[in-house]
Design goal:
Length: 220
């Protein structure tokens, strides 16, 4: 007789809930979906939020919350639009601390060769027997219930995680400095170089230039 484990029970419950959710969405997606599409087509903004049905909350199949560096299968939304990622595929978890009933920040992976993609990092772990690349310019926040364990519980190495994080950071601006940090840096500039710095130079202008360069320049 086959033994029943907690994981198998969670998986069965999640599969049942997903099946029911898919049926309810397919039934509810008729006239209402057409109304929304028609509104966007003719360019007339309408308040459709109160008419929309909330998406389902699916029980997770994982026994514990995912952590950074771990690799899972992720069931991406069916209604994705290219170039968004879709279907079931591996993802690398970036969240330092995720709640099992909440969401996790992930980077999707692909087995299509990305050696010419500067925003991709090849992973040493083989997932499903294939080479995979983390595509770092498309980070996603997904419900933990979308994640399923990969056999062997693979992880990326620390070097791979660092490379992924650098590429993810490269697509976003550098955080703006607070007023207090601006003032501190300005005082440090004046103490090191003197208030005039060079004849006619304004330390505030120089500081503004430094901050602008920090947020706009890319690594060579």
């Amino acid at each position: 007789m086959r033994s029943i484990t907690g994981d198998s029970l969670r998986l069965a419950a999640s599969t049942s809930a997903r099946s029911a959710a898919d049926k309810s969405w397919s039934v509810a997606g008729g006239s209402e979906a057409a109304t929304c599409d028609e509104a966007f087509t003719v360019g007339v903004p309408q308040d459709t939020e109160r008419h929309d049905t909330a998406p389902p909350r699916i029980p997770p199949t994982l026994a514990k919350a995912p952590r950074a560096k771990e690799i899972y299968w992720c069931r991406f939304p069916r209604d994705a639009e290219l170039p968004e990622f879709w279907k079931v595929r591996p993802v690398v978890v970036l969240s330092r601390k995720a709640d099992i009933k909440g969401a996790a920040l992930v980077v999707p992976c692909t087995s299509i060769d990305q050696n010419r993609n500067p925003d991709a990092v090849e992973l040493s772990a083989r997932i499903g027997g294939s080479r995979n690349w983390a595509v770092c310019d498309k980070p996603s926040s997904v419900a933990v219930s979308r994640l399923t364990a990969v056999t062997g519980m693979p992880k990326v190495t620390q070097n791979e995680l660092s490379a992924i994080l650098r590429r993810v950071a490269s697509i976003t601006p550098v955080p703006t400095l607070s007023d207090s940090k601006r003032a501190t840096i300005l005082r440090m500039l004046e103490l090191r170089h003197g208030a005039p710095m060079t004849e006619g130079a304004d330390p505030k202008v120089i500081l503004g230039d430094i901050i602008e360069w920090m947020s706009s320049l890319k690594d060579s």
